[in-house]
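User: Okay, second chain of the day. Same drill as before: sequence in, structure tokens out.
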Amino acid sequence: MTELHQLQPVTLDFFDLAPLRVQCVLEAKCTPEVLFETLRGDTVWTEWAGVIQCVQWTSEPPYALNSTRDVTISGAMLVRELFFHWAENERIAFYVTESTIPGLTKFAEDYVVERLGPNETRLTWTVAIENTGFMKLLNPITADVMKPIFQLWLRRYKKILEAWPTTKAKPVPEGVAAAE
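Assistant: Same drill. Structure tokens below.
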């Protein structure tokens, strides 16, 4: 694996100011709670985001502000992430602290969740990047290439969300008859 290099931290305003920014929207028949349940997972990411091979949380649950994880990406690349914003069932954002991907100085993702109805949710996903060298020159083209790929991924994610169980079976305490 290539050597890890440090990236710069960001704040929420980076999602408006980044030189390379891609935003996609998903509306799904699920609750914000279900959506957040999947975001806290590790295997769901590999099912919808095409380049993610493995997600490993490096902090203890429950995941919240300042949680960390390592994400392995196609081509044996690694990014280390820090969740710097966490509003349960409303919004999470992370930035990459270290990466083996060359040319990155800042990389962050923002997930804004809105309840549209009793079982309908909108997710606005923003990826924001600051890079250097030749890659910086390609930002306009890169954004145009990334957007349709991300929209494909969100179509996969929508199928996962809409098939996700909305309730989990709760164990019946011993000695209590289950309702029929």
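The longest strand covers residues 104-117.

User: Thanks, on to the next one.
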